[in-house]
Write a structure and sequence with these properties.
Blueprint (H helix, E strand, L loop, with lengths): L7 H7 L17 E5 L1 H4 L7 E9 L4 E10 L2 E12 L5 E7 L14 H12 L4 E9 L4 E10 L2 E8 L5 E6 L6 E2 L5 E2 L5 E2 L4 E2 L7 E5 L9 E2 L1 E2 L15 H21 L3 H4 L4 E7 L6 E3 L4 E4 L13 H15 L7 H21 L6 E2 L11 E2 L20 H5 L4 H13 L5 H14 L7 H11 L5 H10 L4 H6 L11 E8 L4 E18 L3 E17 L5 E9 L5 E3 L3 E4 L1
Parallel strand pairs: 4-6, 14-17, 17-19
Antiparallel strand pairs: 1-5, 2-3, 3-4, 4-5, 6-7, 7-8, 8-9, 10-11, 12-13, 13-16, 14-15, 18-19, 20-21, 22-23, 23-24, 23-25, 25-26, 25-27
Helix pairs in contact: 4-6, 6-7, 7-9, 7-10, 9-10, 9-12, 10-11, 11-12
Length: 568
């Protein structure tokens, strides 16, 4: 479940069991780029990348164009490039990843309906379904990306296109005048008169707020009032404070994005900012489900109404911004970047509204200081340094826990490392994070934000990343070095198979991983520890491929072979 919180008790009770994440492009194999200056000006978008989105960020005086890489009819996982240009068309920065010469290593033997059927067996047939064909550049395998949307869940299944096996599965639900929850009057409250009553629909149609009536069905009923004085007290439905704050704070968040970043929510979500308060009974969470935001009322002890804190509202709506731009996968480091960006922008929105601080959720946690602290992540048990990161599988691989590292980076950037201030820091974070590819990790975020910094600010960005352990050494070295003797590679060979397929094989004297690197076409990895290694590829007729193989044992000792050639 994708939510704003990672409270151990709630997580044990409500988080689903998911498959271990599949292999993603490893740091040493990544095709991630972050270009600026002459390198960016000379960049040409590859032929395999198609324009997906254009956003005119007038405040920053740039136009953001996002491209998706394709291999035939399949989207390439993590193959997104964001090209930032001046209004006149001059390229000033390029951020993202592209995998040149990508080859498939499996055949497509099932269709999209069969892939969806696999997911249906696991979670039932309810909800809205969508399926698309993708290819993972880490191993070259085609898979179907199956999404199911329901009111309180958003499951993603990755189904192997050859054998129908479940490669990955996770719940990607992002879980984040009237009188408000704090008892203060929120004015002006932008509502609409229908001729008989007032509705919580802003005059420009950009915000719509509903009462979920303490049920799980969304959006619920549109909030209405007879005299536009929304003062019916109560913490559950039909109490109006939670509705007032959901509506008012959504308006503030919208103003922040338009005025500071020129991001127009309506261009990406024509339905507007849809909010529902009073979700379920004593529900201790809030979430973005891909269409709207929903807020629980809390249990009255650990939490009160979740819409009662501006940084919570802005956090959840920022998940919508992320989905419309970088679409960071909600697992492991990319998921932690997703969560951290929501915390960062939620905090920026509070400062924009002149109520800023460095804690998250402090207004809805009675007797506590919130659920995350960007200045001191350890206060809530979160790491502030990469060496202390969580590496388990809970919390979708630590998406909330490890967000503390990136949160602290942002706090340091804005306040400590030369003090460039929020105005500069928020521009760097917004342009850097919204330009990332979907599988980006902390090192990619480091590279992107350095590229987005102006001359004189880039040293501050580097210093802040260094202080949280995301250093040039970490990002350039490709991980820990091993201890002991490396595997011995022997019997390297290539064999023509049926049609355009060919197989590369070798053996090792001890169990080790399997990786093939082509000079033309990237690196393909299998992380199973075996002694007999093989990889099958679908190539081009008559092509000559130059390749090497490598294997890494359980102690992280790696051996790489000489270069070989294969005539297809």
């Amino acid at each position: 479940m994708k939510s704003i919180f990672s409270i151990p008790l709630l997580f044990m009770l409500f988080s689903p069991v998911v498959n271990a994440a599949p292999d993603l492009p490893a740091k040493r194999h990544s095709e991630f780029i972050a270009l600026k200056g002459a390198e960016a000006s000379n960049f040409r978008v590859p032929d395999t990348a198609r324009l997906k989105q254009t956003i005119n960020l007038k405040t920053a005086n740039v136009v953001s164009k996002r491209y998706q890489q394709w291999l035939g009819d399949a989207e390439v996982l993590g193959g997104q490039l964001t090209v930032l240009t001046t209004p006149a068309g001059e390229t000033v920065a390029v951020i993202g990843a592209h995998y040149p010469g990508l080859m498939s290593t499996n055949d497509i033997k099932i269709n999209d309906k069969a892939a969806q059927a696999v997911a249906v067996k696991n979670i039932g047939n309810a909800g809205k379904w969508s399926t698309k064909l993708m290819i993972n550049p880490a191993d070259g395998r085609y898979f179907y990306h199956v999404e199911n949307q329901r009111a309180d869940s958003r499951w993603f299944y990755w189904i192997d296109a050859t054998n129908g096996s479940v490669v990955n599965a996770y719940d990607g639900l992002t879980t984040g005048s009237g009188i408000g929850v704090d008892g203060n009057i929120k004015s002006p409250l932008d509502t609409t008169w229908t001729g008989s009553q007032y509705q919580m629909v802003s005059a420009d149609g950009r915000q719509k707020t509903y009462d979920a009536k303490n049920k799980s069905t969304l959006p619920g009923i549109l909030a209405v009032d007879s005299d536009d004085n929304w003062n019916l007290l109560g913490t559950t439905s039909p109490g109006q404070p939670a509705l007032v704050d959901a509506h008012f704070f959504a308006n503030v968040t919208d103003d922040y994005y338009v005025n500071i970043h020129n991001f127009n929510w309506m261009s990406e979500y024509p339905q507007g900012m849809v909010s529902s308060a009073h979700l379920k009974r004593k529900y201790n969470n809030a979430y973005w489900n891909g269409t709207q935001v929903a807020y629980g009322d809390g249990d009255g002890v650990t939490f009160i109404n979740f819409s009662g804190d501006l940084d919570v509202v802005a956090h959840e709506l920022t998940h919508g911004v992320t989905e419309a731009t970088s679409n960071l996968i909600y697992q492991n480091e990319s998921g932690a970047l997703n969560e951290a960006f929501s915390d960062i922008m939620g905090t920026n929105t509070e400062f924009y509204f002149n109520t800023g601080n460095w804690t998250i959720g402090e207004d809805i946690t009675p007797g506590d200081n919130g659920i995350r602290n960007m200045e001191d992540p350890a206060e809530d048990g979160d790491p502030a340094h990469y060496d202390d990161r969580y590496t388990g599988t809970a919390d979708n691989g630590g998406v909330h826990i490890n967000s503390g590292i990136v949160n602290h980076w942002y706090y340091l950037l804005a306040t400590e490392t030369g003090g460039i201030g929020l105005n500069a820091a928020e521009q760097i974070a917004f342009k850097g994070f919204t330009s990332l590819n979907a599988t980006a990790d902390f090192c990619d975020a480091r590279t992107a934000t350095i590229a987005m910094a102006k001359t004189g600010e880039d040293d501050n960005v580097v210093a802040a990343w260094d202080l949280v352990g995301v250093t040039e050494t970490l990002c350039g070295a490709g991980g820990d070095t091993g201890t002991g003797d490396a595997p011995i590679i022997s019997d390297v060979s290539s064999t023509k198979l049926k049609g355009l397929q060919f197989r590369i094989s070798w053996t090792t004297n001890e169990p080790a991983t399997t990786a093939v690197t082509f000079t033309c076409c990237g690196t393909y990895v299998k992380n199973e520890l075996v002694t007999s290694h093989s990889y099958t590829f679908s190539g081009t007729k008559g092509a000559v491929y130059t390749y090497s193989v490598s294997s890494t044992d359980a102690d992280n000792n790696t051996t790489t072979s000489d270069w070989y050639t294969h005539q297809n």
